[in-house]
Amino acid sequence: MPILAMIHTVPALPARLEPLAAQALPGWSFTHTVDESLLSETIRAGALTEATRERLAARVRDAAVGADAVLVTCSTLGEAVDALRPTLAVPLFRIDRGMVEEAVRRARRIGVLATLSTTLEPTGRLIEATAAATGREVTLLARLCEGAFADLAAGDRETHDRRVREAFEEVAPQVDLVVLAQASMADALPAAARAGGAVLTSPELGIAAVAATLTGRT
User: Fold this and answer.
1) Which domain of life is it from (predicted)?
2) Are strands 177-180 and 139-144 parallel, antiparallel or unpaired?
3) 3-95+204-215 CATH fold
């Protein structure tokens, strides 16, 4: 049975992502590694440091032993994941790429919400690079949901979600769609908003993109 190894920085994500992966990749099994320090150190430094990149590389190499693919579910680490990809013998994925590719396919004016500045900027760069690679032009409206990540870390999801909703209500009228840059934000908005297509989140789209690559589906 093939194995997808997932590396997380938020403890709640294994339970959120495994059911999606099991549905998208029947016949696969899944392993999970949670290392909150990869994110906390990046937050503390204000950017990815070389030491954090090296620790992520070690985590990825360890996860790849015995696995057929590796998925890193922290968008803050996405650019480090891209840099590691050529060095790994198995496919290596970042959770936000599927969401970004869908956003660029569907919209010219894209809102980006994040609860961390260390995620907001890399997500914007990924959107711009993806658009350039496909010959599309996009404009971005980025907003940081100030304080929301600290609320989540303190266990106050209600306040976290309220801050995300407030930012969404500000940005949504000005753009074609909004992306929530972090997997931990995916359930912050009401189901009706997510179902209406005005919001893209990374868990479902990220897992779908991984599954399409691993199974050859389009």
Assistant:
1) Bacteria
2) unpaired
3) Rossmann fold (3.40.50)
Q: How far is Cα 135 from Cα 195, in angstroms, rounded to an integer?
A: 28
- The rounded distance, in Å, linking the Cα atoms of 70 and 81 is 10
In angstroms, what CA-CA distances link 133 with 34, 124, 138, 141, 179?
A: 32, 14, 12, 20, 19
In this structure, the strands spanning 29-34 and 69-72 are unpaired
CA geometry: angle 153, 157, 159, nearest 5 deg: 105
97-201 has the same fold as 3-95+204-215: yes
Cross-sheet strand order for the sheet of 3-8: 29-34, 3-8, 69-72, 92-94
pLDDT digits (tens, 9 = 90+) for 133-186: 999 999 999 999 999 999 988 999 999 999 999 999 999 999 999 999 998 898
Instruction: Please name which of 119, 106, 80, 81 lies closest in space to residue 5, comparing C-alpha atoms.
Output: 81
Delimit the domains of the chain by residue range: 3-95+204-215, 97-201
Q: Which CATH architecture has domain 97-201?
A: 3-Layer(aba) Sandwich (3.40)
